[in-house]
Each structure stands twice: as structure tokens, then as C-alpha cells.
Amino acid sequence: MLPPLKNGEVLRGRYKIRERIGQGGMGSIYLADDTRLKGRECALKEVEYERALPEKIREEARDQFLREATVLARLDHPNLPKVSDFFSNGPRDYLVMDYVPGNDLRTLLLEARRNKTALKEKEVLAWADQIANALTFMHSQEPPIVHRDIKPSNVKLMPHGLIKLVDFGLVKILAPEEVTITIIQGQGTALYTPLEQYGGSDAHTDIRSDIYAFGATLYHLLTNESPVDARKRFLQPESLIPLRQINPEISPRTERAVLWAMSLHPDERPNTINDFRQALLGYHEPPSHPLHVTRTVQPRPVWDYIAQPPEAILTWSAAVLLLVSLLATLAR
């Protein structure tokens, strides 16, 4: 990996780096001044490709970046930062978007934990409504756009109360005829990632993957406890603690809606963000969705036992004869 950009460095003859404000697996995020538009602050999302990859794969990844950057630049929604430019600088690519001031929701979670308090359900649901607006807009694009990394640190609360869903570094354009290069896309963040998003293939990733991550994010915000990751839940279904066991102040309806969104199988989740929003905000009742179902063992019909191998029939015959003998002894 190349060293980070220096403060004061100017890219594309326009963007003057002020400081690095974030760092991810694919590169850094920088706060920069737009020297062409005085007073405008912007965020530069950096994508750097692994040098060990074959050149053909790096070229495909860069082509994908350019396609996706072109799509993102067309998006215009109040709950999404506006992408204004994209360019390459040597081996790195950059996405330029509006800088979003304010705290991310992970910071607010940590503050609440330090103060030994919990975020208010009413407040969290108001944020959820805005996040749902952004995701509904993204999912309604043609083809749909899936964020793939929804988590508290990627949701920012601006000083005047507006929510922004940030960090498009992991978006996936759901074009059926195209193969997504997972090298650039990453895997999301384990605590909020659905099972279908693990591994190298995106064949089963769709808008319901965002619904799972959205639900897991709300679980964390409402309980101030990290959700158990999907892989552990698959092996130990009972490992995910219901929300109200952690925070009894949460309403049963909200708990049911969040657990519905966090269903391990995509077919058991809401079909759309709007379905989830309707259940979450009380416009219709979410389905009852227990974390694990205890199976009731039904008695088997007698003929099931008859249709058994000879050894089983002999065993049952011996048992019946023993019982008859015992009853005859007691009758005497």
C-alpha cells in the first residue's frame, strides 16, 4: 500500500487535502477544500487496489469503480451525500462527495454507554424513518443499488437533525448481466452482515441483504449491545438475545419488526424496505418471529412401527409379550 496523502496536497488541481478523517480496508477518507468553489468542504473516498492482483483483475475492478461512480453521481436525495466528481490519481481512484458534519451513530452509542443510558426508542425510530427513505430511493433505481455496509458508523446525524447514509465504498449495482468484482466491494462488517453476503460470490445478495444490516443496526442502537453475527446464529440460534430482555423499554412491536428484518434466510425477511418501515412504525403489524422454535414431537402412527425392519418388529414383539406377562402376574 502507498503512504497516505499529505495535508496540503492538491489533487486534480482542485481538491486540497486538509486531513485524513477515516480509514478502511480499501483506502482512506480525506476532508478536503474545493479550491474552485471557495468555502466548500468535500470528502474524498479513496480506493486503492491490491498490487498482488493480476493486472487484468485490477483493470476490471477499476472499470467497475468508474461504472458505479457514474451511477452514484446521478443520485440526488436529502438523506444521501451528493457525489460530485470522481477521478484517478496514479494507482488510486477517488470519489468526491459532500462533506457531512456531525456525529455518526456509533459515537452516540458510545456516549450513551459511557453515561450508562440507552438511546430513546422514539428517537431511533425517527432516524430509522430517514434511513428507510435513503434505502428506498437506492433500491428503486434501475438497476437497484444495494449499499451492503449499513452500520451505526455509516449513519451520520447532522447538527440540525438530518440523517445521512454515508460510505458508498461497498455499493453493488444489481445489473443481472454483470459480474461484480468482489475485490473492490469488500464483505461488509461482520456484526451487521447477513449470511448470504459471506464468501466470494454475490449471487444471492439483493435488497434484502440491506434489510438485514438495517435491522442489525437498529438492534444495536436500541439495546446498546452488539448483535451476534449471522454465522454464530446459524450454529447457535439461541445466541441472539431478544431486544426486550436487554432493554425492557422497547415496545413489543419494535422488537418483532427488528427480529423480522434479522431473519437468517432472506425469504423470511420483509420483501422491501417499505414493508419493514410499515411494521417498524406501526402502520401494520409485524409477524411474530421467534428466534428459535421448539419442535413438538408428534406421536407416530402404529403402522409406522409395523413398517420397520425385522429386527425392530422382533424388539417390539418382545416388549409387548413382556408387558402382557407383567399384567398377568399382577392380576394373580
Can you describe this structure?
- By secondary structure, the chain is an alpha+beta fold.
- The protein folds into two domains: 89 residues, Phosphorylase Kinase, domain 1 (2-Layer Sandwich), CATH 3.30.200.20; 178 residues, Transferase(Phosphotransferase) domain 1 (Transferase(Phosphotransferase), domain 1), CATH 1.10.510.10.
- 37% of the residues lie in helices and 16% in strands.
- The chain is built from eleven helices and eleven strands.
- The chain has a six-stranded antiparallel beta sheet, with helices on one face. Strands 7-9-10 form a three-stranded antiparallel beta sheet.
- Helix 3 packs antiparallel against helix 5 and helix 5 runs antiparallel to helix 8.
- The radius of gyration is 27 Å and the shape is globular.
- The protein starts with 9 loop residues before the first strand and ends with a helix.
- About 10% of the residues have low confidence.
Short description:
By secondary structure, the chain is of the alpha+beta class. The chain is 37% helix and 16% strand.
Q: Which percent bin holds the helix content?
A: 25-40%
Q: Average pLDDT, to the nearest integer?
A: 83
Structural class: alpha+beta
Q: What is the 3D shape? A: globular
How far is the N terminus from the C terminus?
92 Å
Number of helices: 11
| CATH architectural type of the largest domain | Orthogonal Bundle
Flag low-confidence runs: 177-187, 292-313
CATH superfamily of the largest domain: Transferase(Phosphotransferase) domain 1
The CATH topology of the largest domain is Transferase(Phosphotransferase), domain 1
| Radius of gyration over all CA atoms, rounded | 27 Å
Number of domains: 2
Q: Tell me about the largest β-sheet.
A: 6 strands, antiparallel
Give the CATH level 1 class of the largest domain: Mainly Alpha
The secondary-structure element order is: EEEEHEEEHHEEEEHHHHHHHH
Total number of strands? 11
Task: Estimate the strand proportion.
Answer: 15-25%
How are the strands ordered across the major sheet?
1-2-3-4-6-5
